[in-house]
Amino acid sequence: MTGTVQSSTAQPGTLTIRPGTDADLPTLARIMSEVQPAHPWTPETLAHELRVLREHPKRPHYTDWIAEQDGEAVAVASVLQFPGMFHPERYHAELMVRPTARGQGVGTRLAAVLEEHLRARGAQEVLAGAYEDQPEALAFLTRRGFTEAMRFFDNVLDLDTFDAAAWAGQGALPDGVRLVTLAALEQELGQEAARRAYHAGFAEAREDVPRTGEATPLTFEDFQKRFEGPTMFPEGIQLAVTAEGEVVGLSELWRAEGNPARLNTGLTGTRRAWRRRGLALALKLAALRVAREEGAKEVWTGNATTNAPMLALNDRLGFRPRPAFVEFKWGGV
């Protein structure tokens, strides 16, 4: 979960703020989905993500709160340490207020709770954010001393308008490389061998993905937990594999829980020695063929606005950017 702020500044009515529990996951999922409908959550997905956090060897911190007005949940907030970019003094903050509860000071009260908690933990860096078409949320962060660090586009491809015929014959692979899905590779090599090859390619490719801090090394044991999530789609994971069995490129599709018409792109990347040889295009085209076969109507992906090569490729394929998520930072480590 990335840091998010949706808030307001007027005085509230009767408001109570309490720590959340696992029993509140349906409430968190409902409010998070209401505030950011483009990125909905389910209790099952939240439960999986929390279990991954709690079992991670870095022991990242996580806590959340529920704001209730006259007994009704109107806002949620959380503080966590993201395992993929871990530093013991870096935290991510989320704060989301339902649209019907804005303008009543709920966000201000919750922000005070978050700030007190972060001070008590000795936080030296806090990351949070909002979308660029949410000026009140951006101003809320700015007033609290946050400054912009990076922007990330949602890029969306409408498969009804994607001209597959225009790409016929393109996306050839280099000699000695074949395209195979993760599901097929598991059948060929066995599950563990296939996943270890996938992990090796993934771990190197992700190191160069733009982010606001250094990537934490990804162990195979932690990587394995990805396969336990409710949106895992092995047939949608395209791998470029050499004759020696090395995964040198990949493009991932994940299911969008509760929306069979949408697929989400995970990582698309190649190992450093294999870049600028057409692998990304071949992998993306293969993934889009799978998406069409699955009956999906849209494919979503996220890209840092500084990732010019991937943005250019997605633009060629017909992906179109939505408002960018603006990540803000306070302090530094």
Descriptive report:
- The chain folds into 2 domains: 4-145, Aminopeptidase (3-Layer(aba) Sandwich); 155-322, Gcn5-related N-acetyltransferase (GNAT) (Aminopeptidase), CATH 3.40.630.
- Mean pLDDT is 94; it is low at 7-12.
- Strands 1, 2, 3, 4, 5, 6, 7, 8, 9, 10, 11, 12, 13 and 14 form a 14-stranded mixed β-sheet that branches.
- It is 31% helix and 29% strand.
- The chain has 333 residues and is α+β, with helices and mostly antiparallel strands.
- It has 9 helices and 14 strands.
- Helix 1 packs across helix 2 and helix 5 (182-189) packs across helix 6 (191-206).
- It is an enzyme of class 2 (transferase).
- Keywords: Acyltransferase, Transferase.
- Residues 15-169, 192-333 form the N-acetyltransferase domain.
Q: For the report, how would you describe the main beta sheet?
A: 14 strands, mixed
Unreliable runs: 7-12
Sketch the topology as an H/E string, one letter per element: EEHHEEEHEHEEHHHEEEHEHEE
CATH homologous superfamily annotation of the largest domain: Gcn5-related N-acetyltransferase (GNAT)
Question: For the record, what CATH class of the largest domain applies?
Answer: Alpha Beta
Round the Cα radius of gyration to an integer and report it: 21 Å
For this structure, the CATH topology of the largest domain is: Aminopeptidase
> What would the average pLDDT be, to the nearest integer?
94
Given helix and strand content, the structural type is: alpha+beta
The CATH architecture term of the largest domain is 3-Layer(aba) Sandwich
Q: Approximately how much helix is present in the residues?
A: 25-40%
